[in-house]
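Sample entry (281 residues):
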Amino acid sequence: MKFRNAFVVFAFFCSSQVVAQINIWQGEKHHKRVMIYPYIAPDSSAPAVIVCPGGSYFWHDMDDEGREVGEWLRKCGITAFVLRYRTAGVPAFLTHFRLIARGRRYPDAQDDLRQALRWVRAHTELYGLNADSVGAMGFSAGGHLVMSAAELFPCDERPVFVASIYPVVTMQEPYVHKRSRRALLGDNRKRNKAMIDSLSLEKHVQADSPLVFLVNCKDDPIVKYQNSVLLDSALSAAGVDHLYIQYETGGHGFGASETKGTAESRQWNEEFIKWFHQHNF
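Predicted structure, serialized as tokens:
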């Protein structure tokens, strides 16, 4: 009877979509909350995608831009790894303690994404993946994070492609998302001109940047739509192969939700899958 009960429990966990959490900085006590959540597709021979939820670099939307994205990609036959990277946190949003203490700020999130890329590539044999075909998808501030990987990481550490969905792009007026800038740079550096320039991604597109899939909505009330326009123009000027889709409606923060946004903006899912299969990564 005990064996039968144990078997039932085992079968339940195997049949349900229980997602493990893995610390990609094992042995680094200060990074113990940085986690990656694998969503393994049945046929995992397709390129893997590291998913970076948004949240203004202060927190994460781990539902619409995390869990639901991972499950959607898995259903489409694409293995996903949702990354909980370091963010400034709610205390930093409510107070200005980072004027006197470091807290969490740039380049913490970028270092976490770099480590996630290394970790996934190091474990591709375990999951039956191709180490040379690991892409990244990010939303809002997560869109800035994955684009910074495409532009600022060494060539051999960059993702093979980037999907940037309603991203934060610039750190400069008049289109900057000030909350993201404050979270990323820290209270004592949010007006540092050198850092603002270095993290305004429209200024650092390189001709050898990876393929880019870019989506946003013109009625976005959170991140001004011109962020994506600036990035699209920079990618075009550098000759980077990319697809830019601008929807009239949809707002911000819909992720892979089947109800948020609009019927127009929710088309991005199908457009991404179509774009994904058009390229032989």
